[in-house]
Amino acid sequence: MKPVIGISGSILINKGNAFCGYRKSYVNQDYVESVLRAGGIPFIIPFNEDMQATKEMVDKVDGIILSGGHDVDPKNYNEEPLLKIGEIFPERDVFDMTLYRCAVESKKPVLGICRGFQIINVIEGGNLYQDLSYADFVTIKHNQGDNPTQSTHSVKLEDGTVLKTILGEKTRVNSFHHQIIKEVADGFKIVAKSPDGVVESIQKITDDMFVMGIQWHPEMLSKNRSEMQEIFNVLIKKVIEFKKLK
Ligand SMILES: [Mn+2]
Fold this sequence. Notes:
binds manganese (II) ion; about 30% helix; globular; nine-stranded mixed β-sheet; alpha/beta
């Protein structure tokens, strides 16, 4: 049996003429295809506000990808919203928190991407700069245009991390974020940083916990770059390993 990977969904508000304002449940297709190429079965976990149902959805999958999306509501790290915060979706914060906590409790590997990476850090007690202009050390453009497969800035990988074994010392990544990590959650190791010092990846890996967070979007690069696909391959490998532990 191939491992099943739950991918957290969000809501798209229909902007067309027919049913304008209608709410659609979705994930970006690149997540689905990256999981398929890795030999996993992708399973979209639809955004909803029924926490018991969400918990049971996690029971049905072997690992989780927390996908990208809105800014995390700063009330989750005890701050008021500042002038440059983007759009928030507090109900999705609750949904993602439920997914994350249920996955970790049942020892299922988690990969967080972009917002997924940021919310893992917040759930675990870290926090964010609500906009990168509030961090005086940022000198690199982290919110590039809208070419998803273009890599615009470099990141340096830290020793002793899974990502370094996949990506090497240094690689180039795409960048579609305006928020960045301020304080890294306790127990998490910094995995990658951009040259200006922005944390671009964190991990917490123990005998029965595999959590990796990535600020860039490897799923948008994985079709053309085998090392970015390898991130998803490793997730599947971990899921298989963890299933055997139970
Ligand atoms: Mn970046």
